[in-house]
Amino acid sequence: MSPKDIVHCPYNRAHFMLRKKLQQHIMKCREIYKDEVELLVCPFNKAHHIPAPEFHQHTKSCEDRKIIMHYQYSQAAELNEETKHEKIESEENWDDTSVDDYNPQVYASQANIVRDASGMFPAQRKAFIKQERLRQLGEESDDVKPPKATKTHDAARAKPYDR
C-alpha cells in the first residue's frame, strides 16, 4: 500500500481512509456535517468536494478535467477507403418469431427435475404429488404407496392416565 492510496475526508481532515473507500465515507460524512460544512461537488469527479471559495479555481485545475475535455473536443474518426468495408450479408434471420415462447412450467413438467407443491391447497397438493410420482416413476408406480410411519418408542408407551 503506497501513500497515494491514503486520502483524507473533505468534511473532517482527521478522517483518513483508502482511496477506494472514499465515496462510501463521503456519503456518511456529508449527512453528519451537512449543517456545519458547505462543500460543492466537482463536475469532473464526484469524489471531489470543495469549499465554495476554492471551487472556481479547482474547476480550472482539476486533474480529471482533461479526461472530460478530451472527449468533448476530440473529433470523430474520419472514414476513408481503408476503413470502409462492404456490407456483410448473412443467411441467418434473427427476426423470425415463429418459435413458441418459453414456458418454464411446461419445461419443468417434461424435464427430470423435482418440483415443489408449495402454495397449493391440500387437495391440490395431494393431486400434484400423485401426478409427480406418476411422472417421475412411471405408469406402473400407481400402486406404490409411501412408507407408513413407524411408531416411535414414546407412542408405543402406555399413557399413565388412560381411562
From TrEMBL:
This is CHHC U11-48K-type domain-containing protein. Residues 82-101, 133-163 are annotated as: Disordered. It comes from Drosophila willistoni (Fruit fly). SUPFAM superfamilies: beta-beta-alpha zinc fingers. Keywords: Metal-binding, Zinc, Zinc-finger. It comes from the Eukaryota. The lineage of its organism: Eukaryota, Metazoa, Ecdysozoa, Arthropoda, Hexapoda. One of its GO terms (molecular function) is zinc ion binding. InterPro entries: TRM13/UPF0224_CHHC_Znf_dom (IPR022776), UPF0224_FAM112_RNA_Proc (IPR051591), Znf_C2H2_sf (IPR036236). Residues 6-33, 39-66 form the CHHC U11-48K-type domain.
